[in-house]
Amino acid sequence: MTRLLPVVLLLASLLAAAQPSAPTDAFTVNGKIKTPRTFRLSDLQKFNTFNLADISITNHKGEVHGTAKNLSGVLLRDILQTIPLDTDNPKDFSAYYFVCRASDGYKVVYSWNELFNTHTGNSVYIVTAKGQQPAEELDETILMVSAQDIRTGRRYLKNLQTIYVGRVED
After folding, report:
1. With helix as H, strand as E and coil as C, how does the chain read?
2. Which of 81, 103, 146, 150 has the smallest number of Cβ neighbours within 10 A?
3. Over the stretch 131-146, which tens digit does the pLDDT of each residue have?
C-alpha cells in the first residue's frame, strides 16, 4: 500500500493541474502603482476596440494547437496608460514590468519598454469578443493574446485575474 501512495499523489496532482481555470469577469491591477484599480469587462468598452486577424495558437515548439478566429480586443497598453506608476520620473519607467496572472496561476510577463517602446505593445490585447461571442459569453472569459509573438501560446492567457506592476530593484 505504501508503494501506491506516491503514484496516487502523482495522479492527483496531475488531475489538479489539468483542471481548467475559473472564468473571470474582472481583473485587478496592483503593485508599484499609485492606486490599485479593478477593471470589469464592461469597463473595457471605454477603450478603442480593434478587429484582429485570425491567430494561430502555437506551443513552445511552434506546433499549431488551434486558431483563435475573428477576435476583437483592446490594447493592454491603453489600459495600463490610465494607471500612474509609483514614480513621476520617466527615467525610472524602464525598470517596471507587468506580471499578468490567470485564475489558475499561469503567468505572463511584459516589460514596460516592451509594451510602451516596441511594436509588441501594438499587438498585446485583452480580448473583448471571439467569433461572434462577446467576452462575457466565453468559457475563458478574459483572454489576453500577444498577436505578433512567434510562439503565440506562451502568452495566450485565459481568465486574466490580476496584473502586478513590479519594479526591478538594484
Report:
1. CCCHHHHHHHHHHHHHHCCCCCCCCEEEEEECECCCEEEEHHHHHHCCCEECCCEEEECCCCCEEEEECCEEEEEHHHHHCCCCECCCCHHHHHHEEEEEEECCCCEEEEEHHHHHCCHHHHCEEEEEEECCEEHHHCCCCCCEEECCCCCHHHHCECCEEEEEEEECCC
2. 150
3. 876 677 777 789 899 9
